[in-house]
Design a protein that fits this description.
mainly beta; 2 helices; globular
C-alpha cells in the first residue's frame, strides 16, 4: 500500500510541476496603436511581431524591430505601416468597398503570389488586405478591419484593428 501511495504522490508531483509552454498564436486579431510614448529624451512606439503574436513597446534605438508599426501623419491624415524589412515588406492585395468583400478575399487568399513589394504600406484604409513579408522572409496576410482616430497627450494617433494569418515556416501557403 505504501508503494502505491509513493507512486501516486510522484505522479501528482510530475503532473503539477510540468510547465506547459504556450503555443505561438499565428492568426487572430490585434489592435495596433501609432501613439508615441515619452521615453526620456525620445519616444518609444508600439509594434507587433508575427512570430510572437503580440504587441510590445519598442525604444527608438532598439536592435529588435517589430514586423508592423503604425504611423499617423496628422498633417495629411495619412496612415502608414512600417516593418523591420525596410526593402520589400508590403504588397496591397486590394481595397474593398465593405467588410464582407474584404473578409471573403482574406479567407480565400491561401497562397502568396504577389510581386512588387514596397518598403512601407502607404495610404492604409479600412477594408484593405495586404501581404507582409518579414525581415526573416516569412509571410503574413493582414486585413485592416477598423481605424480609429484618437487624441493623445503628445499628438493625435490612430488605433488599427487588424486580422492576420502568419506563415511561420517561410512558405507562401497559409495554414488551412
Amino acid at each position: 500500500m505504501r508503494k502505491i501511495s509513493v507512486v501516486f504522490a510522484v505522479l501528482i508531483w510530475v503532473c503539477f510541476s510540468c510547465e506547459k509552454k504556450e503555443d505561438p498564436k499565428y492568426g487572430g486579431e490585434f489592435m495596433l496603436s501609432s501613439e508615441l510614448l515619452q521615453s526620456g529624451q525620445s519616444y518609444a512606439y508600439y509594434g507587433f511581431t508575427f512570430e510572437d503574436g503580440k504587441i510590445s513597446v519598442y525604444p527608438p534605438n532598439s536592435s529588435n524591430q517589430p514586423d508592423l508599426a503604425a504611423i499617423y501623419n496628422d498633417f495629411n491624415q495619412d496612415v502608414t505601416l512600417q516593418s523591420s524589412n525596410q526593402i520589400d515588406a508590403f504588397h496591397k492585395n486590394g481595397s474593398f468597398p465593405n467588410a464582407a468583400g474584404a473578409e471573403a478575399f482574406f479567407n480565400s487568399y491561401t497562397e502568396v503570389t504577389a510581386q512588387g513589394f514596397q518598403p512601407q504600406a502607404e495610404n492604409v484604409e479600412i477594408n484593405q488586405v495586404w501581404t507582409v513579408k518579414t525581415a526573416a522572409d516569412k509571410y503574413a496576410k493582414i486585413w485592416i478591419k477598423d481605424i480609429q482616430l484618437k487624441t493623445g497627450a503628445l499628438s493625435d494617433y490612430v488605433e488599427l484593428t487588424i486580422r492576420y494569418q502568419y506563415q511561420p515556416d517561410g512558405t507562401k501557403t497559409f495554414p488551412g
